[in-house]
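Researcher: Quick test of sequence recovery. Tokens follow.
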């Protein structure tokens, strides 16, 4: 091979590696890149140990049903998965119905803006995001409504990521992020004009505890909307396949236990809310929310090869490969949950705190 051919071949290989590692696979161009994957607030040499600790919760199921154990369980989970979520999914850690003619990003934004519209919030209102993650929904809702959004997440690493994204988006004056437990929020009574939670309260061991806290901090007459992860009317406890799917979702998403759709309204009323509307947003004519997971299977294998190589080179912490594999298996359970109709991540409930 002459020198010119050798140079061209080397340039092509180098260009391909750069494209594969630095450009391909990031769902959010302003989010994480593969070479920056980490274990959140966990030091790189402890990621694998914490991954094993996460799985140990499921070997002691009664512990994850105990309220004082769940915060550490959820915090560990989000330290492990936050970077992978941002890299492969984007800054909004939730699903949305697929919309014909719209990209996944646009469908996600529409889904988030609908929450703001249901609340009827306006510019200048103070709105709570209970379980805000890295703040994708809060930024969409702040832009759409002009409201000031205060997010709370139990994970300190997510707080730091949200601050960074808010600054990049020029929304620091509208979006505030607090590190805390939404079961014991550091906010005064009657201090918010509205509140929402998007696929977040599923991490609460008892839904009435987080609903009670949200009820407490809302002003009388204000609205609350939640998109809940639940089993549907098609779920059968005596069906082994159904049980396997639901348990797979629980294990892979840090859930102390999925609730039935039947429980949501009852719990909301129990804490004092008036229920205005209830609807499974995943049902037709909505497009399948799990389509994105099925379409992403090829991307997963590409990403998994990349994560494995980065781990082997010592660029990504040991244990990141294990976490990525766990999320892929969970994606399969989620897809099966959607296809069988036994699970929905967007059972919407709209509530009002009474005036008196």
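Model:
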């Amino acid at each position: 091979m002459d020198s010119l051919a050798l140079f061209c071949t080397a340039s092509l290989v180098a260009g391909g590696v750069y494209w594969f590692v630095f450009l391909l696979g990031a769902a959010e161009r302003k989010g994480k890149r593969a070479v920056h994957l980490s274990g959140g607030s966990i030091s790189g040499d402890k990621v694998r140990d914490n991954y094993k600790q996460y799985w140990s919760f499921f070997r002691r199921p009664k512990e994850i049903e105990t309220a004082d154990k769940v915060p550490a369980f959820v915090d560990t989970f989000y330290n492990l998965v936050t970077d992978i979520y941002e890299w492969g999914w984007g800054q909004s850690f939730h699903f949305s119905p697929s919309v014909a003619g719209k990209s996944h990003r646009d469908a996600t934004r529409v889904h988030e803006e609908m929450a703001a519209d249901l609340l009827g919030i306006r510019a200048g209102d103070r709105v709570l995001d209970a379980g805000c993650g890295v703040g994708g929904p809060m930024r969409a809702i702040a832009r759409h409504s002009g409201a000031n959004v205060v997010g709370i997440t139990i994970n300190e690493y997510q707080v730091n990521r949200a601050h960074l994204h808010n600054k990049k988006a020029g929304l620091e004056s509208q979006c505030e992020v607090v590190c805390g437990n939404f079961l014991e929020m550091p906010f005064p009574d009657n201090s918010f004009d509205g509140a929402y939670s998007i696929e977040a309260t599923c991490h609460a061991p008892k839904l009435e505890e987080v609903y009670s806290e949200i009820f407490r901090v809302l002003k009388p007459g204000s609205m609350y909307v939640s998109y809940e992860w639940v089993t549907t009317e098609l779920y059968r406890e005596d069906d082994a396949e159904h049980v396997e799917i639901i348990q797979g979702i629980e294990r892979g998403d840090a859930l102390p236990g999925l609730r039935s759709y039947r429980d949501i309204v009852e719990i909301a009323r129990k804490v004092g809310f008036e229920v205005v509307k209830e609807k499974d947003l995943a049902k037709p004519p909505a497009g399948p929310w799990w389509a994105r997971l099925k379409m992403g299977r090829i991307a997963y294998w590409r990403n998994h090869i990349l994560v494995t190589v980065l781990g082997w080179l010592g660029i990504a912490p040991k244990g990141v490969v294990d976490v990525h594999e766990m999320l892929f298996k969970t994606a399969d359970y989620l897809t099966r949950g959607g296809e069988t109709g036994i699970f929905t991540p967007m059972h919407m409930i709209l509530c009002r705190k009474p005036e008196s």
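Residues 25-30 have pLDDT under 50 and may be disordered.
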